[in-house]
Amino acid sequence: MMDGATGWGGGIDPIDEWLAYVQEGSDGLVLGANVLKHLGLTPTRQTAADDAAMAEALNFHGDDVAEAEFIPHDPWRIFSDVLGWSASRVPGAPDGPGMPAGLTVAVPEQDDHLAPTWAVLDGEGKAQALVLIEAERGADQRNDGDGWAASPHHRLDRLIRDTGVGIGILLAPGIIRLIYAPDGETSGWITWPLAAMTSPGGRPMLAGLKLALGRGRFFVGPEEHRLRPLLEASRKAQNEVSEKLSGQVLGALHDLLRGLHEADPDRTRRLSEEAPAHLYEGLLTCLLRLVFLLYAEDRDLLPTSREPEAQQLWQSGYSVRTLFARLDDDAARHFDTMEDRRGGWGQLLAVFRLIHGGQDRWIKGRGGKLFDPDVFPFLEGRKAGGAPQVLPVSDACVHRVLQGLMTLRGPNRTDARERLSYRTLDVEQIGSVYETVMGFTAQAATEPMIAVVDEKGLPTFVGLESLLKCKPADRIKWLKDRAVKPTTGQAKALQDAKTPQDAVVAFAIGNARGHRDGLIDLRGSPDSHILPAGAPYLQPTDERRRSGSHYTPRELTGPIVTHALEPAFARLGEDATPDEVLRLKVCDPACGSGAFLVEACRQIGKRLQLAWEKHKVARPTFPADETEEIHARRLVAQRCLYGVDKN
């Protein structure tokens, strides 16, 4: 797939390519591909001379040293010779100025202090980034000797947070890592393997390193092209991604209902009439299963076994990402027969059962309600206790559902879709997806209907016959009573409408953009088709229209939770034991999807880690598949957090 002379994959966008190469060593959102593309910041193609220059700067000889343990003898050469840094703006570097005040941080609870190896200054002498060089320990390796046990990564993260710089560059054995830790938000990082960038196969990564950390990000060029504005813009764009994804997931919910109705019409219609809440909750659960799987896959949590054979088996036969790639290819090759093709739904059902029950050491069974096949048996075309069968849900339906979950559409319908990485989403952003699809009810249409956009931006079905029975002068009031507000042009045409099709044409007056065609919501009514009487549909409840549910970003939850927990942490004191920390109780009486509780989990988890450091004898043994940070959060979630909500 890659041209050995240039380092670019055939037909692959160079920005997407280098980000894909470093994905395994990255976590969270750091640099957004859309932001880089919008500004035209494309990495420069690398040649044999470039990777040779990298090898020379590193003085790397693969036969002499293990790649993962490699550390250059003269680190400054990477930054000066390869990245083009100027020593005059890098305090601490050879021939650089003295280190400014205020860049050293005390860690009183560990009787320790933190200081950068170098700093990178802007034109006014303010620190843009801090550099830490660690020659002995790996980036994520704890110190098992005397002093603070934190890894080099953890130390640099603490340093850039406490100094307010927010940007750190870590050079440790085998790697160089960019860490972004904005105040009150989750840290993210990108890791480049040093040795790999000395060979032709590593040219996309070398190009990305120069793009992210070259002199143009710190010393020259337009302000908006500097590293900090790029990082800030990437985070802002990610928040916008949450809103766009939420709207698409709502569309996927409607797609799933239509697909199940087509595959099993009698049962689906009967459920919409006799057990509407059960039908809606089953649809919602199916989407949440997919979101769970995509989040887990993008974070390399599936399968449980790390053996190559297990990984290959998952990728080839069970992965949701692989299924979508296959269906996407089928849609391009066989677009006219996708409604008649089958197979995708059966694969999803098999994966759902596998996650619930597990299989040997390959997949750890998760149990619980989310993936339990007996909670919503209609998804398997059966009654409770009956034998499962694979419903003939079309591959076109499965493809549309996965497309809504896995790609983002541009502002215009002709724009190419961009693949979404769940790896870069905060847990709160996943919660915002859940909030968007809450508060609906399933119903069966009693007359021909069309979905229109209500004042909350939700697809709301209105009966066309009921609308036309109203006097022309009363039709707009009838719609406003249902939270639908037509424009002047639409209102005039609706008053003149004589038939249901006339009303549809009137609703469609206006611009076609995103999921709208005028006032028609294409998520509920694809291609502006009229929903026939008897068909099931989803309608927002009055509670949903009244609710203030919306995505709460970390820049809001962070300071609020910090302020709320401050008195409790003060009462505990610096010498609190781990058990004392875990006796804290936090309750959110209107928790929604839990954004504030998630942030409380982070902050109490960090306080628990400090207690473990202070009282080393109380430090537990961590499971092999959990870091200290994750284990701390797990204990806090289990023992400290409580939430209540109406829905």
How would you briefly describe this protein structure?
This protein has 647 residues and is of the alpha+beta class.
Describe the structure.
- There is one protein chain.
- By secondary structure, the chain is an alpha+beta fold.
- 43% of the residues lie in helices and 11% in strands.
- It is built from 23 helices and 18 strands.
- Strands 3-4-5-6-7 form a five-stranded mixed β-sheet, sandwiched between helices.
- A hairpin with a 2-residue loop joins strand 13 and strand 14.
Stretches where pLDDT is under 50 for at least 5 consecutive residues are 1-10
Work out the strand percent.
5-15%
Distance between the termini: 49 Å
Described by the principal axes of the CA atoms, the overall outline is globular
* Structural category: alpha+beta
State the strand order across the main sheet.
3-4-5-6-7
Number of strands: 18
Average of per-residue pLDDT values: 89
Major sheet size, sense and barrel closure: 5 strands, mixed
Radius of gyration: 28 Å
Helix-residue proportion? 40-55%
Q: Helix segment count?
A: 23
